[in-house]
Specification:
This protein has about 600 residues and is an alpha+beta fold. It folds into four domains: about 170 residues, no CATH class; about 140 residues, no CATH class; about 35 residues; about 150 residues, Heat Shock Protein 90 (2-Layer Sandwich). The protein is about 50% helix and about 15% strand. It has 13 helices and 15 strands. The strands form five sheets. Strands 10-12-13-15-14 form a five-stranded mixed sheet. A hairpin with a 2-residue loop joins strand 12 and strand 13. It is elongated, with a radius of gyration of 55 Å.
Amino acid sequence: MKRRIPLRKRLLVRLLFASALIAVCSVAATTWLAVETTTRALREEQGQDLADDMKILAELSGYAATHPRWTGVQPLVRTLAARTGRRIALTTPDRTPIADSAGKGTALPLGAAATVDPLHTDTYSETGAQLNGVDPRAVGPYRLTAGERAELEAIAEKKRTCYSRFGIDTKVATIPGGRPVILDRDGSPTTQPLPAECGYDRLDVPTSTEQKALDGLTDGVRACLERHGRHGNAPLYLRLNPSGRNPLTRFVLAKFAVDSEVDRKTAQSCAEDELRAQLDPYVAPVAELFLGGDDTTPPRWNMSPANKAKIVGVVGLVLAVTVAVTAVVATRLVRPLRALTAAAQQPPELHVRVPVTTRDETGILAEAFNDLTERRERLEEQRKAMVSDIAHELRSPLTNIRGWLEVTRDGVVDPDPALLSSLHEEAVVLQRIIDDLQDLAAADAGTLRLHPEPLRADELLDQVAAAHRVAAATAGVTVHTKADDTTWLEADPVRMRQALGNLVSNALRHTPPDGTVTLMARRDADEVVLTVTDTGSGIDPEDLPHIFDRFWRAEKSRSRRTGGSGLGLSIVRHLIAAHGGTVTATSEPGTGTEFTMRLPAG
């Protein structure tokens, strides 16, 4: 009876639903990723713009700190604009243009980005600028002459060399005024005391240029303090900060008589005001810095309703295409599966095949189904043949036993010892067939029990040969063994004697009088090779592939009593396989046959 599959459980419906769900998730994930990526990119761009703005301001502040006028700043403005991709404009506080990277007449942005004043750098400044607002590059009258710089550089190099002799790693750097300073390798002013042997202690002494400027600054500070009513009996003087990198001030109020903290703050304020007044003639005037585009420049990112509609439209289109393609693909996939289902629902005895129409996974499945059907058909034929063979094998001894019993019961013959011996032989044949079938059934079911133990190959061969010497003598056949006492294997001794015994019995049946049967054992790498060779009639090449099949004989007309049950070689194959080995046979008609068993060495 054909079972009806509910609609919700059909493969086509589930595949369509899964594909639609995957498409929705994929589109949603892609959209989210695009938005997140764009947002992150905008933030990074904004951060880059801010960093560029700070670099622009630092460059222009440095120009103002080293030039008394803005006259030659236009090339620098154009260079910075080309480097950063920003529009840069400088004007006076009353919006009079000084320099502009844009064309003439281009409107300025609504507000200035910063004020360029090297004497009051409160918002943007170069790394290392003083917090009191004076750009460190504004040195004015404190700039050393070439001769003074050369003299101090020589002293600094000698001082560095002396430090090096005592294992102190330092380097020489030059501050904006031209004065060399000794720094540690991390860039901070060295605090290592100079060994007395060096004797170079004149590096921190002001030069004549610096002293002249310091004297002028000291006079200005003293006048400022007097204007504030702050003065004392002790003299006032200033000295340079030796490193020039103090974050608070480049000068130190070395000595000033004060009565309170208020007096010290007043002195510090006077020093800063007088320093700015002293540097003012050497720096450019205050200017306003404008950055960016004019008011007509559109925003860089605009999530307008039109853009949202576009995103929704694209999502819908992708979803529709995905569903359509999935429907086509699913239909093609389901068609061969339906054919497989229909074939599998047919009665087993029909052995129905399915056509292979594709070479994909479904086609491979169809081929596997057909192969399985063929194997099942062959197994069914083998089963029927085996049942027939078993019935035939059992019928012969049972017929003989029944016949002799009936004639004995009817008084036709007397139950003499010869008759009883014949009946016993028939019973033995019947028992041997049943035992062989039982062994094969256990091997097929995987329940064949083994009890492996270390075995000497020579002793195993001698035991098998001894067990068959009487039968060999009766047949006029000589049995030889050949093995050394160093060949060992791990195996079940009872099962190995059974396997070798079947091969020897088979060889004795096919070897004429005065022939020989030889058992040999040798070591081959990690394997033990056992061979049983006879000088019998041999096996035809076309029969050789079938000798391990059940109930198979090359001579179908042979008597079961002399030909055996037809199960011995099949049992040998299963016993050797259970030990993890293999068995093969080679033969030449009229010369003899050799069976070779390979087993793991002990």
